[in-house]
Amino acid sequence: MDFLTSWIQNIILVVLFANIIDLILPAEKTGRYVRVVISFIIMLAILNPILSIFEQDLYQIDSSFVEEERPSFAEIVADGESLRNESDINKKYKNSLKKQIKALVNLHKDVEEIEVQIALSKKQEIDQLVIKVTKGKVNREKIKDLIKAFYMIDKENIKVKIFDRGD
Fold first, then answer.
1. pTM higher than 0.70, yes or no?
2. By the 8 A CB rule, do 142 and 150 touch?
3. Which pLDDT score, from 0 to 100, does residue 77 have?
4. C-alpha distances in angstroms, 22 versus 31, 114, 133?
5. Please, what are the domains in the chain?
6. Phi, psi (5° rounding) for residue 166?
């Protein structure tokens, strides 16, 4: 009920203000333009509560999305602590590269076990790559071509060692 009374009071005040402006201004050409502007102000005063309802709904939707995606402070601190040491970052990077390379080599049907050794340069690029594969009928050149195409490294820096089960 409070909302309705304040809305009506605002409309009455705007209409009174418009009448006072209309009485003060002369009835010449500029008076017509001023009346148009005042009528727009009165329309805004009438439509203001309806517009504010739409604005509140939009803000509530936006804030709900933002609050769901925010990680907690404890998670942020834990992530920062785990990344603090540069060697930990290098280890994580190497492990993710190893997993990717294993997945690429696993596309080859005759591969059973894969061991990957990576040497990184100072710029964190793959300097040397050794892939040890357990199974007999694997084409080294196909694996080298696949790794070269995916990581853009020279074939000379890729070594593929194939072992039989008995080794």
1. no
2. no
3. 82
4. 7, 88, 92
5. 2-69 (no CATH), 85-163 (3.30.300.30)
6. -75, -20
